[in-house]
Write a structure and sequence with these properties.
Blueprint lengths: L1 E10 L5 H17 L3 E7 L2 E8 L1 H13 L3 E12 L17 H16 L5 H12 L3
Antiparallel strand pairs: 1-3, 1-4, 2-3
Length: 135
């Protein structure tokens, strides 16, 4: 059994560039060591993240995120069981979405939500489009 959680949060405006680098490095190390897949995107003053993996580990990581001072105004969009991982080849690290495989993974995630008739699938698509847009 697997689980996914997706949320967005406001970035603490007092964070410096080096703190962002540290956050993304910590995220990658922790997620790699716990076999968590997904992605973390920062755009302007917003974090958007999808986590996937073992339900106990995902719940623990998410509780830590909710207590982390680097996040505020957390909005949870998805917290559910999933039959398979959508992002098993997707790096969580601090990276720019720049290749077709990454975009395809995001698209497949939204397609799967649409097929499951998930209430937030349209919202996910809008958020992802906003994160990828230069406007």
């Amino acid at each position: 059994m697997l689980k996914t959680i997706c949320y967005k949060s406001d970035v603490n405006k007092t964070l410096q560039l080096l703190e962002f680098e540290a956050l993304f490095n910590q995220t990658q190390l922790k997620n790699d060591s716990h076999n968590i897949t997904g992605f973390l995107v920062k755009r302007n003053d917003v974090f958007f993240q999808v986590l996937e993996g073992n339900p106990i580990i995902i719940d623990t990581v998410y509780e830590d995120i909710k207590k982390d001072r680097r996040h505020s105004n957390i909005t949870e969009f998805l917290n559910t069981s999933i039959p398979q991982l959508s992002f098993k080849t997707f790096d969580i690290g601090y990276s720019v979405i720049k290749d077709v495989d990454t975009l395809y993974s995001l698209q497949q995630f939204v397609v799967n939500l649409n097929q499951q008739k998930h209430e937030n699938s349209t919202l996910f698509l809008e958020i992802i489009e906003g994160l990828l847009s230069d406007h």
